[in-house]
Amino acid sequence: MPSFHVLIAGGGIGGLCLAQGLRRAGISCTVYESAPGIGRAGYRLHMNGAGGRALQQCLPDNLFELYMQTSRETPRREVMVVLDYQARELGARPHIGPPNDPSRPHTAVNRRTLRQIMGLGLEDIVRYDSTVTGFETDGEKVRVLLDDGTSETGDVLVGADGINSVVRRQLLPDVAVVDTGIRGLYSTAPLTDDLAARLPEALFDGFAVAAGPNGAMFAYGVYRPRRPVAEAVAELAPGAAVDPVDPYIMVNLGLPPGSPFAAEAPDLWHSSAETLHALMRTAVRGWDPALADLVEHVDASTIFPVSTRHLQPAEPWPAGRVTLLGDAIHAMPPSFGSGANTALRDAAALARALERAAHGDTPVAEAVAEYETEMRAEVFPILRASADPRGLDADFLPDDLPVSHT
């Protein structure tokens, strides 16, 4: 294979998966990640057949098996359940994506665990504390500019640097970031046997949401791995730096704009953990006792605020040596649980396209164009549906979205 080097801005879910896929194909790459290491942004991630198969294509066999064993045990139903504030089921909606694996369906993972697994074996190519500030192209090569004043050259630059992507802002400056106005709190509660026995059964299905009369909304997602994380790591990747994780249930409070409860909420970014926990308690006054008790069990140290934003779908653009994947080009609200899955899908597809280019089978711009055309066709409908205000309705499922069955 002729010399071919890929520059990747961003070491999140998509960037690490791409790096694993390129390494598996024998292609040189470097990942530039602005954070000092793998942080704790977010908790439970829904997985589907698209994301799972992308991991299978990109990861070494032992790491894919480690992902599978540390993914969530199979629920009775792999659906999104809509409840009222008294825990009565109002409806359920299947998850979207291609058919899931029948024997061990892809379900959910702990975000940090997945990132740690995907980082194994990449220690020599992931550069933390390294922020991309821009790029330059000359037709034959692309140069990435870094915040320390240095630059490095490669054959392709991939922006995997999230919704605030520096690469996208330079490549596609007209793509708008849309603030939905929805604010919220993410948190987790340790899932003890005693707590689990008191919770409504629907909370153990794929995902659950509930709304109260004051406009407060909660989303729930269980993470109980198929096998204890430390035990799986000891067998499949001995000595690997993957943190043990005990079972938990993610408890997320949503504050839709204009709702009475949102109007009374304090500044989420300048409040103490105790104040935020108190806000969550206030939100569930008068709710089903089990749902209210669940908020009592939230670990206040896990609470952090979030804003729900998304990108507008970009019009087709000329393909070249700079491209984008994941949230950098189609950041979406979590309505359909597809953000991580589409990023992984992009990474696997782009790895295949760049392998053709690296071998000289397809010109670089043509390989990138094929990837981008397919990505727009497959992922932009999911972006549009996720950004639709009806996204959390149990009966909202656009005809152009494939349904995932377990």
UniProtKB/TrEMBL annotation:
Pfam families named among the record's database cross-references: FAD_binding_3, NAD_binding_8
Entry EC number(s): 1.14.13.113
Keyword match Oxidoreductase: yes
Alphabetized GO MF terms: FAD binding; FAD-dependent urate hydroxylase activity
Keyword Hydrolase on entry: no
Cited PANTHER family: FAD-BINDING DOMAIN-CONTAINING PROTEIN, MONOOXYGENASE, FAD-BINDING
InterPro entries the UniProt entry points to: FAD-bd, FAD/NAD-bd_sf
Record gene name: hpxO_2
Keywords: FAD, Flavoprotein, Monooxygenase, Oxidoreductase
Name this polypeptide is given: FAD-dependent urate hydroxylase
Domain FAD-binding: 312-377
Biological source species: Streptomyces chartreusis NRRL 3882
